[in-house]
Amino acid sequence: MLTLDPPSHPNPYPSYANLRQHGGLHYLEAPGLWVASDAATVAEAFEQPACHVRPHEEPVPATIADGPAGELFGRLMRMNEGEAHQAPRRFLMPFLNALDDEEIARLTRYRLSASDVPAPSDAMFRVPVMVIAALLGCPPEHEAWLAAQTSRFVAGLNPLGTSVQREAAHRAAEALMATVSRFETLPTRAQGTLAPDILVANLIGLLSQTHDATAGLIGNAMLALHARPSLRDALAHRPEGVATMIEEVERHDPPVHSTQRFVAASCQLGDTWLKPGDTVLVLTASANRDAALTPDADHFRLERRQRISFSFGAGRHHCPGRRLALGIATHVITGLLERREYVNTLHHQGYLPSRHGRIPRLTSTQEEHA
Predict the structure, then answer these.
(1) Which of 102, 172, 184, 295 is a plausible cystine mate for 153, CB 3.0–4.6 Å?
(2) Residue 53 domain-assigned (yes or no)
(3) Would you tell me the crossing angle of helices 322-337 and 242-252 to the nearest 10 degrees?
(4) Taking the CB of residue 260, how many other CB atoms lie within 10 A of it?
(5) Pairing of strands 279-282, 272-274
(6) Is 215 contained in some domain?
(7) What pLDDT does 49 receive?
(8) Whole domain around residue 354: which residue ranges?
(9) What's the CA gap between 147 and 126, in Å, rounded?
């Protein structure tokens, strides 16, 4: 019988490989959905116009629909189709594409250096969100507050969250909308016009996506280095190689393992016909390890002729912030490697509960003694 381990499992990859070996699309009774696990089927699911990011009957999760968090969620381009998806994307892409790599590096390193021994949670969650806040024009004295509010908002969106977290998410959504709307340096290199509430919501969406995805990328990179002392030593002397290492982490042990697509009209994926109302779990972390796409895919290797990853999506809904996330993660890890013993003192305490993300719980001996 085919089974699927969650991303928080210590090693979910054997279950992914078992699914992938059977190829195509498979229906799993327990979760009650179809699973796409090989690269070809995952790519097809991302390109299929009838596969939407939200179910037609529930555009906003019912758990947050009646409140500010639900209103904000409903305006996010990544949670919409058609013009509601394309208009914010057309507006924001020029801004994201024009971000200066040296400015991203400067902002990241400066915020990381604020603490001699940064807690892993700060390096993973707080620093990246503060960098995005700075790029959006947030006053420096408000960055930490904005990062905390973003964390509360994200926690309330988690289907595994509590009612207390959802209530906190509503309050955080209100606070974020009011604050971000007052930033003086909102995207000026954008094209066209966009309603202010849609613009502000999608800037908050950039903050919230950064919160989990970049945290998982940084945390899993820390674990990769902790498990490979020789690589850690090599990169400490050759920091220009960190960017490549981050790209391999994104492929090999990514921060996001899956996403869902909801069938809006009859369509075909591979040899399987799907009907309206069906749900497809798009197992991107499995596709990343498909040998048909990447030779020797199960091994962590920096030297690759080509490195293909579905971790930030593909097709019309691919994440426009990939370069930004990889850049921030690269400079965080580079900064941590300069603290010679930091990565070596990490304690791994499993993974945060999530249906789609793989974000490690990390503490540091240095942090405890700071």
Answers:
(1) 172
(2) yes
(3) 120
(4) 17
(5) unpaired
(6) yes
(7) 97
(8) 13-369
(9) 6
* Closest to 126 measured CA to CA, from 215, 36, 16: 215
Q: How far apart are the first and last CA of the chain?
A: 50
Asked if residue 6 is part of any domain, the answer here is no
Residue 2 lies in a domain: no
CATH of residue 328: 1.10.630.10
Nearest Cα to 46, choosing from 224, 246, 261, 235?
261
The one-digit pLDDT tens for each residue of the chain (370 residues) are 788 999 999 999 999 999 999 888 999 998 899 999 999 999 999 999 999 999 999 999 999 999 999 999 999 999 999 999 999 998 888 888 889 999 999 999 999 988 777 899 999 999 999 999 999 989 999 999 999 999 999 999 999 999 999 999 999 999 999 999 888 655 544 445 788 899 999 999 999 999 999 999 999 999 999 999 999 999 999 999 999 999 999 999 999 999 999 999 999 999 999 999 999 999 999 999 999 999 999 999 999 988 999 999 999 999 999 999 999 999 999 999 998 778 888 999 999 999 999 999 999 876 655 5
Structure tokens of 36?
């796409």
